[in-house]
Amino acid sequence: MEIDAAREVRTTCPYCGVGCGVLAKIAADGQVSVRGDPDHPANFGRLCSKGSALAETIDLDGRLLHPEVYGRRAGWDEALDRVASTFSQTIAEHGPDSVAFYVSGQLLTEDYYVANKLMKGFVGSANIDTNSRLCMASSVAGHRRAFGSDTVPGTYEDLELADLIVLVGSNLAWCHPVLYQRIAAAREKRPEMKIVLIDPRRTMTADIADLHLAIAPDGDVALFTGLLAYLGQHNALDRAYIAEHTTGFGQALFAASKLDLAGIAEATSLSEDELGRFYGLFARTEKTVTVYSQGVNQSSSGTDKVNAIINCHLATGRIGKPGAGPFSVTGQPNAMGGREVGGMANMLVAHMEIENPAHRARVRRFWNAPSMADKPGLKAVDMFKAVGDGRIKALWIMATNPVDSMPDADAVEAAIKACPFVVVSDVLASTDTVRHAHVRLPATAWGEKDGTVTNSERRISRQRAFLPTPGEARPDWWIIAEVGKRMGFGEAFSDASPAEIFAEHAALSAYENDGARDFDIGAYAGVDVEDYDGLAPFQWPAPSQSPPTTTRFFANGNFYTPDGKARFIPIRPATDTRTDEKFPLILNTGRVRDHWHTMTRTGKSPRLSQHIAEPFVEIHPADAQRFGIGDADIVRISSPRGEVLVRALVTLRQRQGSLFAPMHWTDQFAAKGRLDALTASLTDPVSGQPALKHVAVRIEKFAAKAFGFAVTRERPASVTATYWAVAKCRGGWRVELAFADDNTDWAGFAASLFGAPPTSDTLAYHDRDAGQHRIAAFDAERLQGALFVAPGPVAVSRGWAAEQLEETHAGQRERFRIVAGRAGAERPDAGATVCSCFSIGANQIAAAVAAGCTTVASIGETLKAGTNCGSCRAEIRVIIEARRVQAAE
Ligand SMILES: Nc1nc2c(c(=O)[nH]1)N[C@H]1C(S)=C(S)[C@@H](COP(=O)(O)OP(=O)(O)OC[C@H]3O[C@@H](n4cnc5c(=O)[nH]c(N)nc54)[C@H](O)[C@@H]3O)O[C@H]1N2
Ligand SMILES: Nc1nc2c(c(=O)[nH]1)N[C@H]1C(S)=C(S)[C@@H](COP(=O)(O)OP(=O)(O)OC[C@H]3O[C@@H](n4cnc5c(=O)[nH]c(N)nc54)[C@H](O)[C@@H]3O)O[C@H]1N2
Ligand code: SF4
Ligand SMILES: [Mo]
Fold first, then answer.
1. Alpha-carbon separation of residue 152 from 144, 325, 425 (angstroms)
2. How confident is the model at residue 641 (pLDDT cuts 50, 70, 90)?
3. Which of 293, 300, 577 should be mutated for ligand 1, with most atoms under 8 A from CB?
4. Looking at the whole model, is its pTM more than 0.70?
5. What domains can you pick out in the chain, each with its CATH number?
């Protein structure tokens, strides 16, 4: 496409479900810069660390730029014909359920719509499922059980209007940072606003909480059924709302009364006093919003957790009112859009139901579909089992990396490897999933493609292209439509642009609707290319007739059940012990501030890679002692399915008996960091969502003979160490290392790691008795690589070592300083990066505190830290607090 370089293009961030507006600009020299869109109603100009670093992630390094068929470059015609003919042939021989699509909440709505249409209306199977199964499925199921529809009742403004925000299983400070900042700003204006955090770990989000309940893993059902009983006992019910707009209250209350307060205290491992404080606060605060995320959804009781929460809101009539409601926040940029197009195997498009014959008939009419799916398809975990046992013979994966992100990931990888025909559409040439594809299809990436996404508050925004299309990459919707055409469905897949697809999607949402379905954007059914280009962010519902008077749902009932009433779901707390003698600890998994999922994007950014540069596990000091683990040791975590090697981080933020490890590291970035090799395919019985936060494991110290740390100019081609992890830094790469065996040839190892030209000068220091080795190689004045080896975790400053890659080293003195492994006295070690925007480390902040800065604002004035995106403000506050405690001791 033609790109107007002088213009700032209005688009939407491709990361989380907050859905922030972004202004992207290309300067005359081609340099791209981004800033928050001040006019976007999700962020009003703010961006978090990931959004701010978007320009660092759009280079073409590692991109898949041409179609490939069986490992060789092919033209689009050949690749598309091959996909279409193999799918058609498989369907002809084995029936429509022998093929499957596994798609993603990172597809745009238009891509998602076309994929779903092809599978459910034309292939005639519902075997299309999505990574949203791992993410939002329990919320969807809970909404449908209670409301008769998958409706998020509230809006972001409610978070600012609330007097009490309850955050359940959500690390908002790191995972929805701009929402967190909106709450922090609102609370600064209204300090009386209260925040309760319910999370087994003391996360950075605890920084803003008045009360942190370090709940036992999966204690949430007991906690919220207990709350319902408490509301009943303390006359805190909205009896009029219950009578007029709901059914089933009596049974729900009866079920909730199974445990007394002592029983709840035991099931949640919270004290009766803590419970009393939380319950009392909830009971007396009318304007309460309960925000929940993966600590709720990713559980074998996920749907019950959702309904236990919703029950409390229905019982108090706190739903769809300004400042009150249950609020499931979405993870991916288009998790919500995927739900609108019915992207899951048990849904139909436009919030219709696949089990409902009238709905199926309506969609068939609208699409003029030859073979509508007539039953739900396989949900993700079952889908990959069917791939593994040969029932699915052709699989197309789009915009997701299941070899890393599916539970029991080694089994998923084996299934993919065994599948006769695997197609992967991706933007990268090499991911842990792409490596197994028979056909690789190059998709256009963020900044190159056009479409829409829907955020957590049902707001639809445009993603707009501002970069030229690289190589032969094509948008996902085009790729899918071309395959549809080649399978013989030309007429149905003739839409020539995202605008046309969006108009069709909008028309279907209004088709025979008349207020019977929540999702209605009929007002946009007539958009043309020009309207679509200028489309401003809008919230649904947006029906074509009467414009809605409110963007919230259910304040006055009108639920999407046959009788218009909400359903209370009777929920009984149940206990479930997964640990045993062999696997005595519970592994909890999740995210870190500056990485996104399998690091395909954030791993490219030096700024984002510095905050946390290797896979780790958080362990409580008592557990560390029990299992003989020291801080910074390398540890092996094992489950019955697999193992990983990660760095131990001993911390009181972790609960005793539990571990926490992030999901981000893959074979591309670490020797053995694929966390989902450990997780189980145990799922919630209603939603099919896997229980990714509660896995029985054991931990042991990895007996390393030596530890190492290196910086290298080029990315190491291969690393012959038992443990390694690479992270991008400004001048090259940082490499963490540990070795199971004695090594005598450190010079040889260094040479293979650095890949330095033979002309380079090498400087080495060896103290064999002490097990200390340091080797640096220089090419002219530039450092090619430096390796530091020690018998224990290497104590060299990472930031300082990485900086040496960017400096010139003409004199022997500077070169020796590297081999000495010490920053010069005039250059104190900045410490671990806290503020990614300005590269400010923990030691610098601590020094500023020692020099008299006692607030986050004064740190900002002195160091600039925390003054751009603000994502690190919670961490800065923690450092200030820690210093204060030290000073007081
Ligand atoms: N930086 C960053 N942000 C992201 C993403 C990312 O990869 N990186 N991904 C996006 C996506 S797709 C998603 S889905 C969201 C996820 O956003 P979040 O759900 O906020 O993130 P998680 O870290 O997965 O898990 C949240 C918390 O649940 C807690 N938890 C675990 N078990 C329980 C439990 O039994 N009960 C309770 N109450 N809490 C529990 C964990 O300790 C963890 O702190 O983040 C989005 N934003
Ligand atoms: N243990 C554990 N596992 C988890 C979770 C957890 O908390 N714990 N969380 C789960 C959740 S909530 C989620 S959402 C998943 C996320 O897991 P994944 O979806 O597997 O993670 P991503 O790294 O986002 O993968 C996106 C892929 O799409 C590619 N891509 C990017 N843009 C485009 C595009 O425009 N078109 C195409 N075709 N490809 C593109 C990227 O290169 C990348 O390969 O992980 C789940 N797995
Ligand atoms: S909060 Fe951050 S990651 Fe999420 S949409 Fe906004 S800028 Fe992007
Ligand atoms: Mo997610």
1. 10, 9, 31
2. very high
3. 293
4. yes
5. 7-57 (3.30.200.210), 68-134+342-495 (3.40.50.740), 137-328 (3.40.228.10), 585-701 (2.40.40.20), 706-820 (no CATH), 833-888 (1.10.10.1100)
